[in-house]
Structure prediction request, 107 residues.
Amino acid sequence: MAVASPALAADVTFVMRNDHPNAVELELYSQDRNHIWPGDNQVYYLDDGETKQIPLSCEEGESICYGAWISGDKQTYWGVGPENAETCEDCCYTCSSGETEQINLTE
Prediction:
């Protein structure tokens, strides 16, 4: 009988900068399991010009994509957008120790 081994925990820090003139809302979506950060119908909020470091506890090797949009305007988005509904290039990162390069959300 095979026993499932527990998933290995890891941490990654997303470094996000809002270079758009409007405030931005952001969520991070696991592509390997049903999990969203911050979760519980909350979002990360970045004022214009703000840089935020967002540390996550995740599973080693897990793929995590960012979705961001202008606060109050889900039609203007970056990454996978609101609800993880879009496809993207270069917006997903692998969970492993360390941090992403600074991700700039621009016009």
